Fold these 3 entries.
Entry 1:
Amino acid sequence: SSFWLLPQAFLAATAGFVGAALVKRVLPARVIAGGLLIAAAGFALTAFLSPDSSPLLVTASLSLVSFGAGMALALSNDIIMSSVRPERAGQAAATSETAYEVGTTLGTAVLGSVLVTWYSSAVTAGTDALGLATSVADRVASTLAEALLVATEVDPETGQAIIDAARAAFTEAITVTGVAGAVVMVGAAVWALVTL
């Protein structure tokens, strides 16, 4: 249900304001690093996921990532804009926006590739014993949604085995991707402390 995404949206919207308030008392580099570490904690929460996890755990993870990244992004943009002369503000804004878009796209591509690759490998290992036809096994390994669709097209016992294997593989892939995201966020936090 979309209800579980409300805390994430609220925290993402308020993150910049919290960061702006903190930067009056703490060095910007520390606030940015703190935001990145909060995001890392959100990614790290995926290590506790299981196929039967409560939506509350997913909400907490997404909320921490949104809040921490939102705080870091708002302040880093402010640093970029305040570091140039007024006549260069347009150029600085364009550079900041381009960096944001490239970073978001690259992050999505890399972490998405990790997720898909891990899921495919894990679900293939989990369904090998079922003796599925190659075309069916390929469909199961493509996405979780496709695996759930395939499960409705085979006999109930095999279908349930596919569902169980796909859910376990997807959860494992989310965990691995989350840990990778946490490592990236910790690295970015250290980089922010050293360079800003």
Entry 2:
Amino acid sequence: HRRDRGGGGVEGPALVTRGFEPLAAPDAQVLILGTIPSRQSLDAGEYYANPANAFWFIMEHLCGATPGLDYAGRVAMLRDARVALWDVLQAAERRGSLDSAIVAGTEAPNDIGALLGRSPLIHTVFLNGGKADALFRRRVLPELSRYPRTQLRLERLPSTSPANARLTKQAKLEAWSAVVQALAGRRLAERPAPDS
């Protein structure tokens, strides 16, 4: 069998894929959830390691960072911007790297509620693509009722995956500007009212 290097083909037997720990500081205000790491990301031990994935391109632009940061710099950039990063799934069987290759019924979700408890300032959850959104709503959202929260806004964004070829990187970047708007909106709301 050829080895799938993150390009996404469906080949060979389904393998159990296990995800990463979250990147989340206690002061995070938004949470971005992917589905589960690609094989290329797992091999590298890094979120979104496939250079064809637009995630880091988008986040560097949105955070005003120098393009091409190393992974440690990218993680620090997210932390400084108060952005948490994780995946909806802790584990699943999958053939290849595409979300569409996840074997239905094998999905084990991450404990998103516990993460929200550790990072109580998170007010918005962004879902990276349709599969992440569908799995979150089906496998995670019903469990969140166990965790008291005031309001949690959910927003599906276009997938940053190269498999989402119908949108250019620039179009994805424009859609993902919602992350900056969510952060800016919360910061404006937290400002004290001017003295009269």
Entry 3:
Amino acid sequence: LFVCPILSLLLVSVASADEPLDPETTLRTLVHANAERDLATMSKYMSHDVDAVGYTIDGRKYEGWPTLAADMRSEFDSVVKLEIPITKLQFWRHGDVAWFAMELDYIRHVNRGEQPMVLPLRETGVMERRDGRWILVTWHESTRHHHRGTEQASPDETALQRVAESCRMATQFNSTYKAWHLWSLTNFELIQFYER
């Protein structure tokens, strides 16, 4: 009689052991899920709030989960492979809220045997711990350019130069007694926290 409750407790313990316990591990899990084209895992660690806002390259804005999920499905269907190595990641944390600045290369393999498209990106975002699980609440993604001065930009970067380099984003959300403002500036990210 007592075997079932004990077994269920063990199974719950094993399942929760696989859960990322901190915001950095959660973010790395999200990036890995994106590379593996695993929308279910992405869904698990991203906000489904109706007013959740995310900004991505080419000026696209996502509000809520359904539109982002539809675009992710379309992206996953359009490639044979994705690679997303993180080249730089910095985290800050205060209580149940964490924020990050990250650089990564989004590598799209459209056809086998052909040269992949490499998009050098930078991202900033805010995560919140809800019921013990870290969730990506808001993010801003833009291109980063390695070629300056007289050097030629790569074809991938040239195609993305439509994105304004002096893009500014201000997203605010309230979490109990805290408010967060996230600004994305041209070559660095600044995140300011204040208590009400």
